[in-house]
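Continuing from the previous page of notes. For each protein in this section, the sequence appears first, followed by its C-alpha cells. Read the first protein now.
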Amino acid sequence: MRPVLVATLCALVAVPALGQTNPPGYMPFDLAQQAKLRGHVGTWQCVSVPAANPPLSFTETEQGNWFVTRRTGASPAISYERWSHVLKAYIIIAIFDSGASDVAETTSLDPDNATYTKMWPLLDNQGRKRFDNQVSRTGNVIRSMSDFYDEKGDVQSAERSCTKQ
C-alpha cells in the first residue's frame, strides 16, 4: 500500500509541471524570448483616445506554453500569445466575441517595444488594408498606437495606455 501512496503523491506533484513543459524544439534562446512575456501576467486597466465605451481592461495568465488574455470593454476578446521557434517571431491570435479573429506577429526581440503586423486577414471586411500596431512599454505602462478607419472611411489615429494593477 505504501508504494502506491508514494507513487500517487509523486504523480500529483508532477501534474502542475506538465502544464509548464518547454515547447518542442525550443533552445535556450527561445526559452528566453518566451520568458519575456511573463511581464504581461496580471490585470491591466486602459485609457483610450478616442475613448472606448466601456473602457478596456484585460487579465493575462500563463497557460501551458501560451499567454492568454481575456479582454473586456467595447470589443471583448480572448487572445493567445507566444514566441514561435519556427518563425522566430512573437505571434498573437485574437478571437473576438463578435466572431471575428486576427493574427499578428512581430520579429522584434522585445515584445513590449515592437511593431505588430497584421498577418491575417490582410484586409478588413470592406477590402481595405489593415494597419500595424506599435507598442512601447515603460515600467508598468504599455502604450499602443494604430490607425483605423472611421465611419466615413477616413483614416484616424488611436492610442491606448494600459497600466498594470
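Done with the first. The second protein uses the same format. Note its length before scrolling.
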Amino acid sequence: MAFELIVNVLLLVFSFVCYFYVGATMPQSAADELGAEQWPQAILVLLILALLWNIFKMLRHNSRADILQSFKDLGPQAIAFFHSKLFIGMVLVVLMAIMYEPVGFIATSMFLLIAYGFLLGEHRPLHLILSSVIITFILYVGFSVFLGVLLPRGQVPFLRNFALLVESIFAH
C-alpha cells in the first residue's frame, strides 16, 4: 500500500508539472476551438482527478496503523513491484517510445505486441506473430489511412523501405 501511495503522489506531482508545461509551451489556439494544448490538458485533469480519488480511497479505507506498517514493509513491496509483470510492461512501453522514431511504427508495434503477448502468457510463436501482424495492420490503417496521421517510417534502410512500400499500397 505504501508503494502504491508513493507512486500515486509522484504521478500526481508529475501530472501537475505536465499540465503547466503544456500550457506554457504550446501555442494558444483561438477562443472558439479546442486547440492542441487543451486536449492533453483535459486528459491530465482527468488523470489528476483519478489519482486524487485513488489516494482518498486508500487513506479512507486503511487505518493509520496499517498505512504506517506498510511504510515499514516498503522494501519488499518495491522489490516485488520491480519483478512484476506490470513493471516489465511499463519497461516495454518505454522501449517502444525510444524505438518509435528510429525503427518506425510497423516494426515497433509488432515488437511491442509480440513482447506483450509473451508477457501475458501466450507462448505459441505463430499465434504471437500472426496476431501482432493483424493488429499492427489495423492500427496502421486506422491511423494512417482513416485519420491521416503520418506514422514514423524509421531510419533503418530496409524498415524504411518496407514502410514506404506499405504506404504506396494504401495510397491508391
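What the second structure shows: The first helix runs from residue 2 to 25. Residues 85-170 form one domain. We return to this in next week's lecture.
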